[in-house]
Structure prediction request, 204 residues.
Amino acid sequence: MFTGIIEETGKVISLEPLKGGLEITIESDLTTALEIDDSVSINGACHTVVYTSGNRFTVQSVEETLRKTSVGDLKKGDIVNLEDSLTMQKKLDGHIVQGHVDTTGTIKQIDEEGANWLITVGFDASFAHLLVPRGSIAVDGISLTIARLQTDNFTIAIIPYTWDNTNLHQRKTGDRVNLEFDILGKYVLRALETGHITAEKYIR
Prediction:
């Protein structure tokens, strides 16, 4: 489990094919906090650390992850967002993020507005019911708030600190990003769909 508050960025050092998957080595100061078998969020996708050495760590991304996320788009030298898993000692400053990417979106537009940036992300409209205006969403592992919402795109406002301390400042129009929708909303929708709760029960 994660919070969507990015702790460090890392640099992709190597990518090696692994029986349909991919073995990824990343250089980052976060390595000192990681041990073998630890979970780490890489651009919002949860991975298990399999090796560490100095300031580098290695993870293995399976075929299913490559199919559902943008991890397969990574290239040597790319900058990625990193977050160590949540502990009882950490503040839940963002929102509950599992590191289980639901789908990918595509950056449609990046606009500078004063000191902030507005990023519009297009996504498959079949996921529209999982988003609400001013609701939470994880974009490449970053906990963000939806500022504007349309049927097949949403806009997020990025403050200078987030822009400078994540990989967003390197993103460009057309890039794919990982999206994870709010888990609390997904549980409520699932309960409604299965009839375990009804809207009428809570309306008086």
DSSP finds three helices and twelve strands in the chain.
